[in-house]
Amino acid sequence: ADWGEVWSASVGQETAWMPRVAVFCISGITCVIYAMLLGDLLSDILRSALVAGGVSAPGFWCSRAPVLTMLTSCVLLPLCLAENFSNLAFTSVIGLVACLYLASFTVWRALDARQLWRILSYSLLAAKPAALVQATTLADTLNIRTLVFLSNVGMAYMNHGMAPGTFQ
């Protein structure tokens, strides 16, 4: 059963289109968010890799538009059109392994004596980074950048949970 069928059984048939449209919009917006983030990151990574490999001017194919086009047509579109996500189960294991690696690396760095020395010797630095300023007004904390960040995180979280039910 999809969201529309559940809605029509519990609320009514005349408004069963509403959850389907909502899920479609959330999934579409999430794809746009992922495309923006991955397009920016991958174009920078590709440009850096080519420069490190000896290419002096990476050129057009490392700019954002071609990377976004290739990413959308070769990765995001096939994933959005997939009806069965069981073949992506291994990516959950890879993600879990990556999270465990990150956690263990963080603990290792926290327990490392050299890192502890760097933290303690911070007061000896001649040039320190700018200090964080405590927010004094609501506008300092609740601004457009914060809202965009929270929207991106929320959309990504919601879409991960709804993707299998949406496309089955």
Task: Describe the protein.
The chain is mainly alpha-helical and 168 residues long. The protein has seven helices and no strands. The chain has helices at residues 3-10, 17-52, 64-81, 89-111, 113-120, 138-141, 144-167. Helix 2 crosses helix 7 (144-167). The longest helix is centred in the N-terminal third of the chain and has 36 residues, at 17-52. The model has no long low-confidence stretch (mean pLDDT 77).
List keywords for this structure.
168 residues, mainly alpha, 0% strand, extended
Largest sheet: none
Name the beta content range. Answer: under 5%
Stretches with pLDDT under 50, minimum 5 residues: none
Number of discrete helical segments: 7
User: Which of globular, elongated, flat, extended, rod-shaped describes the shape?
Assistant: extended
Instruction: Give average pLDDT, whole number.
Output: 77
Provide the helix percentage.
over 70%
Oligomerization state of this entry?
single chain
Radius of gyration: 22 Å
Distance between the termini: 9 Å
Helix-strand topology string: HHHHHHH
Tally the beta strands: 0
| Estimated structural class | mainly alpha
